Task: structure prediction
Amino acid sequence: MNLHPQEVVSSFEVQYIADVLARLKSQLVEEHPSGTMPRDAHPKMHGLVEAEFVIHDDLPDDYKIGVFSQVKTFKAGVRFSNANGAAQPDLKRDIRGIALKLKQVVGEKLTDEPDCFENQDFLLISTDSFLCDGIQTFDGMVKAIQGSLWQKLGFFVTHPSVVWKLVTSFKVFANPLQIRYFSCTPYLLGNHAVKYCLTPVIQTCDFVPPEPADNFLRLAMKQQLLNAPAEFVFGIQRQANPNTMPIEDASVLWKETQSPFMPVATLRIPMQNFDTHERNQLGENMRFSPWHSLTVHRPLGSINRARRIVYHSISELRRRVNGVG
Result:
């Protein structure tokens, strides 16, 4: 793998990634000794919907790369979820996620995994920057969360920026179809570093019901899609300044005043009933990874390099335990 000129790999990065992976796998095995093993993150799914990803016909030439190289409509599967490792009520403050899997995407891929053969994945969440700067801090956070009270206090006292991110990023939302989502981590677009966002096109804004059910986000999605379609605009933000928009610090917000998001595609979700046994099973078993990608859209930075190993290994563990081929 050829690194981007701004990527810096620590000599201890492999060790940090291995530690995070070991801790996450150990926690999954300990918490789910029998039965179905869920995802370690984003286990609670609000719905897996069928959609279309429509590339715009007016893109500048330097954006016409990979998926965006030609005017085309891709079929897509889109999974909405809560980030917390426990399947808690939707009224709990949390980060929400959206995962897109574009189908029949041809070109040179980063991996030969079956889920990447003719697919391109995009993963985004409901906060505009990541909780931690890199894998070393993320490893420390996982270790603290799983550790004693003193370990927790020790980490969070010495990492106030992580505390601030946790406080400001965990929110209550009314409808997953009405949230703005961000990639947080950077990716290639040819030779440029970029980030992604999905901005909802909202006609009527929903509100959290006064006495919400534990799964009211799924119910809100279901109600909307039984009566009307949903739509998001997919935007690309180009890195304008490597000092203020770094690749190796995922906690830094790339300000839109410095580099606005260029609309490049529209995600259209038609009216449908997604809440079926077959669709729910498919959403439970479907694998998503930012590394299910064309080479020209390669993920960048230490958080993304860790995701390549962690996502694949956790997925293989789940498929083995759950008996999914």
Remarks:
- The first strand starts at residue 44 and ends at 55.
